[in-house]
Amino acid sequence: MISLKNIKKYFHKGSVNEVFALNDINLEIGEGEFVTVIGSNGAGKSTLLNCIAGSFLPDSGSITINNCDVTAWPEYKRAKFISRVFQDPLLGTCPSATIQQNMALAIRRGMSRGLAPGVKTKDKPFFREQLKHLGLGLEDRVMDIVGLLSGGQRQALTMLMATMVRPEVLLLDEHIAALDPKTANQILSLTRDIVAEQNLTTLMITHNMKHAIAFGSRLIMLHQGRIILDVRGEEKMQLTVKDLLAQFYRSQGEELANDSLLLG
Ligand SMILES: Nc1ncnc2c1ncn2[C@@H]1O[C@H](COP(=O)(O)OP(=O)(O)O)[C@@H](O)[C@H]1O
Ligand SMILES: [Mg+2]
Q1: Could you tell me the residue ranges of all domains in the chain?
Q2: What share of the chain is helix, strand, coil (3-state, %, to 5)?
Q3: Segment 34-61 mean pLDDT
Q4: Which residue owns the Cα nearest ligand 1 atom 27?
Q5: Cα separations in angstroms, 191 against 114, 188, 219
């Protein structure tokens, strides 16, 4: 379970460039909940995930994960609980190492870091079996250098590596945005399967409103650092892209209304 209480995050506080990226976020995400996150550019989506992951500390508020207060924990310490996948397929893997060397690294998540690990013979069948699940034929290429893989193959491997040791929290920041539509759909199905199989507590940022509706058990919309929509269950299933667009324009309209108040 993730609990965010009164989270505020400024960038460039006190300067002319001041941005109030998270404006008093309160959010409770239950064990196994799969939350899709939408909002316009600059709404604070990545900042929200970065705050949970500990990429930086919030200016105020508290964060607990499974009842453990991690507010002051640095990113590397939270990495025991949290796996992340980003838009850029290059970020999740080591390009100069082989597929099985990458997997050997992933399986050590949360353990003490020693020298670069060798691939243990006893782990090899497990790696092959995991790769087979992807349906991309990578199980026959375990000795290939990851840098040779396509973006989609690499992102599939990244998803696998992020979840080989079950994380308490899975954070996906537009992880299919850089892929062609067909590959994006494959990675999305893979995501759905992995999240369901392991009952992972997940936040997935997407720009695709259809995906935001079709995937996950809950949907939140951010605008100017605030949560302006939070729906789940039946209500979420009834949502349409039109509803979301209407909500979106309403939020923009409020902005205009505020401006006109100011000008008036
Ligand atoms: N590291 C940073 N330094 C300065 N400003 C930042 C930083 N990260 C995000 N911001 C600003 O915070 C706001 C929210 O950004 P972000 O969370 O990346 O938006 P989103 O992911 O919803 O597009 C934006 O105005 C952005 O410019
Ligand atoms: Mg972002």
Answers
A1: 2-91+167-263
A2: 40, 25, 35
A3: 97
A4: 42
A5: 30, 5, 16
Q: Nearest ligand, CA of residue 222?
A: 1
User: Cα 248 to chain center, whole Å?
Assistant: 22
Architecture of domain 2-91+167-263: 3-Layer(aba) Sandwich (3.40)
Q: For residue 56, give the ligand 1 atom closest to its CA.
A: 1
CB 163 within 8 A of CB 200: yes
- Position of tokens 């250098």? 145
Q: Which residues surround ligand 2, an ion (CB under 5 A)?
A: 45-46
Q: What residues contact residue 140 under an 8 Å CB cut-off, 6+ apart?
A: none
Closest residue (by CA) to atom 18 of ligand 1?
Answer: 46
Average pLDDT over residues 39-58: 97
- Which one of the ligands is nearest to 44 CA? 1
How far is residue 196's CA from residue 182's CA, in Å, rounded to a whole number? 21
Residue from 46, 50, 222, 248 to probe ligand 1 pocket by mutation (most atoms less than 8 Å from CB): 46
Alpha-carbon span 221 to 3, nearest angstrom: 17
Q: What is the DSSP string of 74-91?
A: -HHHHTTTEEEE-S-TTS
Distance 261 CA to ligand 1 centre (A): 27
Per-residue model confidence as pLDDT tens digits over 197-221: 999 999 999 999 999 999 999 999 9
